[in-house]
Amino acid sequence: DSQRGAESVQEILELFAEVCATHEAELGQLDAVAGDGDHGQGMVLGSRGAVEAGRKARERGAGARTLLIHAGTAWAESAGGTSGALWGSALTAAGRALADDAAPDSSAGVEALLNAVEAVQRLGGAQPGDKTMVDAAAPFAQTLDKQFQAQESLSAALAAAASVATEAAASTAELKARLGRSRVLGEKSLGTPDPGATSFALLMTALAERLKS
Ligand code: ADP
Ligand code: MG
Ligand code: MG
Protein backbone atom coordinates (compact mmCIF):
# COMPACT_ATOMS: atom_id res chain seq x y z
CA ASP A 1 0.00 0.00 0.00
CA SER A 2 0.88 3.65 -0.27
CA GLN A 3 2.19 4.15 3.29
CA ARG A 4 4.47 1.12 3.14
CA GLY A 5 5.89 2.19 -0.23
CA ALA A 6 6.65 5.68 1.01
CA GLU A 7 8.22 4.32 4.16
CA SER A 8 10.63 2.03 2.32
CA VAL A 9 11.68 4.83 -0.06
CA GLN A 10 12.24 7.15 2.90
CA GLU A 11 14.40 4.50 4.59
CA ILE A 12 16.58 4.31 1.48
CA LEU A 13 17.01 8.11 1.45
CA GLU A 14 18.03 7.96 5.11
CA LEU A 15 20.51 5.21 4.30
CA PHE A 16 22.00 7.36 1.51
CA ALA A 17 22.35 10.32 3.88
CA GLU A 18 24.12 8.11 6.41
CA VAL A 19 26.57 6.77 3.81
CA CYS A 20 27.28 10.27 2.45
CA ALA A 21 27.98 11.56 5.98
CA THR A 22 30.31 8.64 6.70
CA HIS A 23 32.32 9.22 3.52
CA GLU A 24 32.17 13.03 3.36
CA ALA A 25 35.87 13.64 4.05
CA GLU A 26 37.09 10.87 1.73
CA LEU A 27 34.91 12.11 -1.17
CA GLY A 28 36.09 15.67 -0.57
CA GLN A 29 39.71 14.56 -0.72
CA LEU A 30 39.16 12.69 -4.00
CA ASP A 31 37.52 15.80 -5.48
CA ALA A 32 40.36 18.04 -4.24
CA VAL A 33 42.90 16.21 -6.42
CA ALA A 34 41.61 17.56 -9.75
CA GLY A 35 38.39 19.35 -8.80
CA ASP A 36 37.23 21.84 -6.18
CA GLY A 37 37.04 19.49 -3.20
CA ASP A 38 33.33 19.89 -2.50
CA HIS A 39 31.97 16.51 -3.58
CA GLY A 40 31.61 15.14 -0.04
CA GLN A 41 29.88 18.30 1.12
CA GLY A 42 27.60 18.33 -1.92
CA MET A 43 26.53 14.73 -1.37
CA VAL A 44 25.87 15.36 2.33
CA LEU A 45 23.79 18.48 1.68
CA GLY A 46 21.90 16.86 -1.20
CA SER A 47 21.06 13.67 0.65
CA ARG A 48 20.01 15.58 3.77
CA GLY A 49 17.78 17.83 1.68
CA ALA A 50 16.23 14.74 0.10
CA VAL A 51 15.55 13.18 3.53
CA GLU A 52 13.94 16.39 4.75
CA ALA A 53 11.74 16.69 1.64
CA GLY A 54 10.81 13.03 1.94
CA ARG A 55 9.77 13.52 5.54
CA LYS A 56 7.58 16.48 4.61
CA ALA A 57 6.03 14.59 1.71
CA ARG A 58 5.18 11.71 4.02
CA GLU A 59 3.52 14.09 6.47
CA ARG A 60 1.26 15.14 3.64
CA GLY A 61 0.48 11.48 2.96
CA ALA A 62 2.48 11.18 -0.28
CA GLY A 63 3.17 7.78 -1.82
CA ALA A 64 6.53 6.47 -3.05
CA ARG A 65 6.34 8.16 -6.46
CA THR A 66 5.54 11.67 -5.23
CA LEU A 67 7.95 11.38 -2.32
CA LEU A 68 10.89 10.50 -4.58
CA ILE A 69 10.05 13.16 -7.16
CA HIS A 70 10.07 15.83 -4.41
CA ALA A 71 13.22 14.38 -2.87
CA GLY A 72 14.99 14.70 -6.23
CA THR A 73 14.14 18.37 -6.54
CA ALA A 74 15.32 18.95 -2.98
CA TRP A 75 18.59 17.06 -3.55
CA ALA A 76 19.48 19.25 -6.53
CA GLU A 77 18.56 22.46 -4.71
CA SER A 78 20.33 21.56 -1.46
CA ALA A 79 23.54 20.25 -3.00
CA GLY A 80 24.24 22.67 -5.80
CA GLY A 81 27.04 21.57 -8.11
CA THR A 82 27.11 19.16 -11.00
CA SER A 83 26.62 15.97 -9.07
CA GLY A 84 23.72 17.52 -7.15
CA ALA A 85 21.83 18.23 -10.36
CA LEU A 86 22.55 14.71 -11.59
CA TRP A 87 21.50 12.97 -8.37
CA GLY A 88 18.41 15.15 -8.20
CA SER A 89 17.31 14.13 -11.67
CA ALA A 90 18.19 10.52 -10.88
CA LEU A 91 15.85 10.45 -7.88
CA THR A 92 13.07 12.18 -9.77
CA ALA A 93 13.44 9.75 -12.70
CA ALA A 94 13.41 6.82 -10.27
CA GLY A 95 10.21 8.15 -8.72
CA ARG A 96 8.51 8.22 -12.10
CA ALA A 97 8.95 4.42 -12.33
CA LEU A 98 6.99 3.94 -9.09
CA ALA A 99 3.32 4.21 -8.18
CA ASP A 100 1.85 6.26 -5.36
CA ASP A 101 -0.79 3.77 -4.34
CA ALA A 102 1.28 0.58 -4.16
CA ALA A 103 4.53 -0.47 -2.52
CA PRO A 104 7.20 -0.99 -5.22
CA ASP A 105 7.82 -4.61 -6.18
CA SER A 106 11.13 -5.96 -7.50
CA SER A 107 10.53 -5.07 -11.10
CA ALA A 108 9.49 -1.51 -10.20
CA GLY A 109 12.68 -1.28 -8.13
CA VAL A 110 14.82 -2.35 -11.09
CA GLU A 111 12.91 0.00 -13.40
CA ALA A 112 13.49 2.89 -10.98
CA LEU A 113 17.24 2.25 -10.84
CA LEU A 114 17.54 1.92 -14.63
CA ASN A 115 15.54 5.14 -15.11
CA ALA A 116 17.82 6.91 -12.65
CA VAL A 117 20.99 5.94 -14.52
CA GLU A 118 19.41 6.84 -17.85
CA ALA A 119 18.54 10.30 -16.49
CA VAL A 120 22.15 10.86 -15.39
CA GLN A 121 23.41 9.91 -18.83
CA ARG A 122 20.82 12.04 -20.61
CA LEU A 123 21.29 15.16 -18.47
CA GLY A 124 25.08 14.96 -18.11
CA GLY A 125 25.84 13.76 -21.63
CA ALA A 126 28.96 11.92 -20.41
CA GLN A 127 30.20 8.83 -22.21
CA PRO A 128 31.94 5.89 -20.58
CA GLY A 129 35.64 6.78 -20.39
CA ASP A 130 35.06 10.48 -19.62
CA LYS A 131 35.90 9.77 -15.97
CA THR A 132 32.55 10.60 -14.38
CA MET A 133 29.84 8.89 -12.38
CA VAL A 134 28.72 7.30 -15.67
CA ASP A 135 31.78 5.03 -15.61
CA ALA A 136 30.27 3.32 -12.57
CA ALA A 137 26.58 3.88 -13.33
CA ALA A 138 26.53 2.48 -16.90
CA PRO A 139 28.05 -0.94 -16.10
CA PHE A 140 25.92 -1.00 -12.95
CA ALA A 141 22.73 -0.58 -15.00
CA GLN A 142 23.84 -3.12 -17.62
CA THR A 143 24.56 -5.75 -14.98
CA LEU A 144 21.36 -5.07 -13.05
CA ASP A 145 19.23 -5.30 -16.18
CA LYS A 146 20.92 -8.46 -17.45
CA GLN A 147 20.84 -10.31 -14.13
CA PHE A 148 17.24 -9.39 -13.38
CA GLN A 149 16.15 -10.47 -16.85
CA ALA A 150 18.00 -13.75 -16.24
CA GLN A 151 15.54 -14.34 -13.35
CA GLU A 152 17.87 -13.33 -10.56
CA SER A 153 16.12 -11.79 -7.56
CA LEU A 154 16.33 -8.02 -7.09
CA SER A 155 18.74 -8.46 -4.19
CA ALA A 156 21.04 -10.85 -6.10
CA ALA A 157 20.99 -8.72 -9.25
CA LEU A 158 21.66 -5.58 -7.24
CA ALA A 159 24.52 -7.19 -5.33
CA ALA A 160 26.16 -8.20 -8.61
CA ALA A 161 25.60 -4.74 -10.12
CA ALA A 162 26.97 -2.96 -7.04
CA SER A 163 30.09 -5.07 -7.14
CA VAL A 164 30.60 -4.25 -10.84
CA ALA A 165 30.11 -0.55 -9.99
CA THR A 166 32.71 -0.74 -7.22
CA GLU A 167 35.30 -2.26 -9.54
CA ALA A 168 34.43 0.21 -12.30
CA ALA A 169 34.73 3.17 -9.92
CA ALA A 170 38.18 1.98 -8.81
CA SER A 171 39.21 1.58 -12.44
CA THR A 172 38.47 5.25 -13.17
CA ALA A 173 41.82 5.96 -11.47
CA GLU A 174 43.42 4.92 -14.76
CA LEU A 175 41.43 7.55 -16.72
CA LYS A 176 42.09 11.25 -17.28
CA ALA A 177 39.13 13.53 -16.62
CA ARG A 178 37.80 15.15 -19.76
CA LEU A 179 34.49 16.77 -18.83
CA GLY A 180 34.13 20.11 -17.09
CA ARG A 181 37.80 20.31 -16.22
CA SER A 182 40.85 21.74 -17.95
CA ARG A 183 43.29 19.36 -19.58
CA VAL A 184 45.83 20.18 -16.87
CA LEU A 185 43.43 19.14 -14.12
CA GLY A 186 42.54 16.05 -16.15
CA GLU A 187 46.20 15.02 -16.07
CA LYS A 188 46.26 15.58 -12.32
CA SER A 189 43.37 13.15 -11.83
CA LEU A 190 45.40 10.24 -13.21
CA GLY A 191 45.90 7.72 -10.40
CA THR A 192 42.88 8.95 -8.40
CA PRO A 193 39.39 7.49 -8.86
CA ASP A 194 36.57 9.81 -9.89
CA PRO A 195 34.70 11.13 -6.84
CA GLY A 196 31.24 10.86 -8.42
CA ALA A 197 31.85 7.28 -9.58
CA THR A 198 33.12 6.45 -6.11
CA SER A 199 30.08 7.87 -4.29
CA PHE A 200 27.74 6.14 -6.75
CA ALA A 201 29.38 2.78 -5.99
CA LEU A 202 29.26 3.43 -2.23
CA LEU A 203 25.54 4.21 -2.32
CA MET A 204 24.64 1.24 -4.51
CA THR A 205 26.72 -1.09 -2.32
CA ALA A 206 24.86 0.13 0.77
CA LEU A 207 21.53 -0.27 -1.02
CA ALA A 208 22.40 -3.83 -2.09
CA GLU A 209 23.46 -4.64 1.46
CA ARG A 210 20.17 -3.26 2.83
CA LEU A 211 17.99 -5.20 0.36
CA LYS A 212 19.71 -8.52 1.07
CA SER A 213 16.97 -10.89 2.05
P1 ADP B 1 31.12 20.04 -8.95
O1 ADP B 1 31.95 19.44 -10.05
O2 ADP B 1 30.08 20.97 -9.45
O3 ADP B 1 31.96 20.59 -7.84
P2 ADP B 1 30.75 17.63 -7.42
O4 ADP B 1 32.13 17.86 -6.94
O5 ADP B 1 29.74 17.38 -6.39
O6 ADP B 1 30.27 18.82 -8.34
O7 ADP B 1 30.71 16.37 -8.39
C1 ADP B 1 31.77 16.04 -9.21
C2 ADP B 1 31.41 14.74 -9.89
O8 ADP B 1 30.31 14.93 -10.76
C3 ADP B 1 32.51 14.18 -10.76
O9 ADP B 1 33.42 13.41 -10.01
C4 ADP B 1 31.74 13.34 -11.77
O10 ADP B 1 31.59 12.02 -11.32
C5 ADP B 1 30.37 13.97 -11.78
N1 ADP B 1 30.13 14.61 -13.06
C6 ADP B 1 30.58 15.81 -13.50
N2 ADP B 1 30.13 16.07 -14.74
C7 ADP B 1 29.39 14.99 -15.10
C8 ADP B 1 28.64 14.63 -16.28
N3 ADP B 1 28.54 15.44 -17.31
N4 ADP B 1 28.01 13.43 -16.28
C9 ADP B 1 28.07 12.61 -15.21
N5 ADP B 1 28.75 12.90 -14.09
C10 ADP B 1 29.41 14.07 -14.04
MG1 MG C 1 33.39 19.40 -6.85
MG1 MG D 1 31.74 22.51 -6.93
Number of strand segments: 0
CATH architecture: Alpha Horseshoe
What Rg do the Cα atoms give?
16 Å
Whole-number count of domains: 1
Pattern of helices and strands: HHHHHHHHHH
Q: Tell me, what's the shape? A: globular
Under CATH at level 1, the class stands as: Mainly Alpha
Beta-strand fraction estimate: under 5%
Classification by helices and strands: mainly alpha
Distance between the terminal alpha carbons, to the nearest Å? Answer: 20 Å
Distinct helical segment count: 10
Mind describing the biggest β-sheet? none
* Helicity level: over 70%
Describe the structure using short key phrases.
binds adenosine-5'-diphosphate, 75% helix, mainly alpha, 213 residues, single chain, binds magnesium ion, Serine Threonine Protein Phosphatase 5, Tetratricopeptide repeat
Describe the structure concisely:
With 213 residues, the protein is mainly alpha-helical. The chain has helices at 2-22, 24-34, 39-59, 64-79, 81-95, 106-124, 134-149, 154-171, 183-188, 195-211.
How would the blueprint of this fold be written?
Layout: H1 2-22, H2 24-34, H3 39-59, H4 64-79, H5 81-95, H6 106-124, H7 134-149, H8 154-171, H9 183-188, H10 195-211
Helix pairs in contact: 1-3, 1-4, 1-10, 2-3, 2-10, 3-4, 3-5, 4-5, 5-6, 6-7, 7-8, 7-10, 8-10
The protein binds adenosine-5'-diphosphate and magnesium ion (MG) (2 copies).
